[in-house]
Design a protein that fits this description.
Helix content is about 30%, strand content about 25%.
Length: about 190
Amino acid sequence: MGAGRPNPNGQRPGGKKDDDGLRINEEITASQLRLVGDNIPEPGVYSRSAALRMAEELELDLVEISAKADPPVCKILDYQKYLYQQKKKAKEMKANASKVVIKEIRFGPNTDEHDFQFKLKHAKEFLQEGSKVKSSVFFRGRSIVYADQGEKLLLRFALELEDCGRAEQMPKLEGKRMIMMIAPIKKK
């Protein structure tokens, strides 16, 4: 008997029902099946009972890979090992997915040159390590009347960072903050 064979109450060993939508062993209802894979002597169309017998002789499971095909395509394999490999593959794909890190740099509408250069240096470092930079100008009280100054500051900031990053959007005023995102340039 294969590792994934359901027990009498229709559940997998460990009490878990099949959650990936694949039918195995007695759950397969088609009378004719196309067997493929490494464990069978000759790929081809077999009756359900012959396919189940072959799987039982090899002490493996009969797994329906493609139910929509005519006849349904099945493989004889170790179902638990198959599930483990699928989970492992999904975990690897998740680990390899790039994670976007956003660093924020804040200015005032009247930021002086030294502070601007200091923040520019940090933004270059962030972009070179692959992080996005969210630059914002925060307007306090009546300083909102200097919104055009804040926009000029952000545009100059983006211009200075042109060699290592590109602006994803033009400066946008949201409440008392003007925001602009700068993404790193991909290296080839």
